[in-house]
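FYI - complex with 2-phosphoglycolic acid, inputs then prediction.
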Amino acid sequence: MRRPLVAGNWKMNLDLPSARTLVGAIREGLDAAVAQRVEVLVCPPAVYLFPLNEALRGCPVRLGAQNLYHEASGAFTGELSGAMLAEAGAKYVIIGHSERRHTIGHLEDDRMVNLKLKAARRAGLTPIVCVGETLSERKSESTLEVLTFQLTAALVGVSVQTPEDLVIAYEPVWAIGTGHNATPQQAQEAHAHLRARLRELVGDVSQEVRILYGGSVTPQNAADIMRQPDVDGGLIGGASLKADSFLAIIRAALAKVT
Ligand code: PGA
């Protein structure tokens, strides 16, 4: 059985004192029995990784980064390598988030996602590769085609042997930060499609790879989404910035495995 993963993507939010308070409250509120069954991850701004790694010492909550650069070192002003992020405490890294694909200046394309995925793996980080269609792609009924293309392009030349080698996040662009989550049926359709394509690309290990849903997940809608057979947890933005709502979503993921 796949162990659910609930990941908080803090984006560019919080100052250091509030970041410390938030991880303290998550740590405090996370039952040991829950933490055994559900993997919990927070992805703060990169400058907070190091202090939060200290704050989380001895605690099962893992740390992840929100981005990396694909080169190992060199004249790349302002960028961070996978090894630097790992040294600061990251175990995971988000790659190809829709805000990086569509919103932020240097747009991240499928080729860049592939390079970053390989760089993450070289640094011993588990990549969380985000894929998802825009609203116009959904309206033109090309969602599944877009997902196939993004997944295939991300995995060119990548071998996946264990569930630590890859996590996928299905994040419909129209659902991120909008309050309009995908319905549980829409999520399941996309996740089942991704798992079937993944099987063609990497074989049986596709049954062990976790596919997270992301996009306006709240404590109110989490249980219905998580209950879907191919949804293995969530990538949570806004609702991960408050301990109460994040913990409630973790409990919803727990219901999946109890
Ligand atoms: P949201 O963000 O939960 O605020 O919609 C999700 C994400 O961007 O990963």
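The longest strand covers residues 126-131. Residues 9, 171, 176-177, 214-217, 235-239 surround 2-phosphoglycolic acid (CB under 6 Å).
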